[in-house]
Amino acid sequence: MAGRVEGKVALVTGGSSGIGRATALLFAAxxxxxxxxxxxxxxxxxxxxxxxxxGGDAIFxxxxxxxxxxxxxxxxxxxxxxxxxxxxxxNAGIEGATxxxxxxxEAEFDRVITINVKGVWLCMKYQIPQMLKQGGGAIVxxxxxxxxxxxxxxxxxxxxxxxxxxxxxxxxxxxxxxxIRVNAVCPGVIKTPMVDRITGQRPGRAxxxxxxxxIGRMGKPEEIAAAVVWLCSDASSFVTGLPMAVDGGIAAQ
Length: 253
Known about the structure:
alpha/beta
């Protein structure tokens, strides 16, 4: 049986670990050729090797999503290697510091917004022309439940993820009649290196975050990957502009 994205070319940013790695692996398992991009070379190359070991086809591209020239070069490399770009998971992002709004450092605020918001916008800026040229494509941006709800002591992160949801809806409307679908996934608390960093700052926080999930546990990166690949597949052909909560029920409260 053919995979859900058989023969397609998929790009995953932030593919060195966590949700990005899980998505890259699932894209490959479902038949796509995969471009793994990240600033972290060792992790990105490890993801590619995992795909190749499993019999898939992938390359790694080192790119900083906050730098236009590197994002443009990333798209050019993907197309030069595989001839097209059908699916893009714009997943790279950072959590920033954990501080109250009035205590937040301006430089840190700017850094979070630049990577999380400008980075997603730059990716779409260079992905969309290629998709228009070939007649269509599917983009999934990683937002967060923090793009749907408030989270105390994460003002920059929350602001950035609300912005990703807004960018997603705007692009979805702009290109809906041109064969390009744009959606977002909004993960809840997922067991990733990012969440490990956040929970590691305070004893007992991991347990409290897991308990806050109505489903009673943290999510797995593979559960977000499943949503991303579905949103990029033909099974979701009538879905665009959706900020999909994959969060164990947090946003339903």
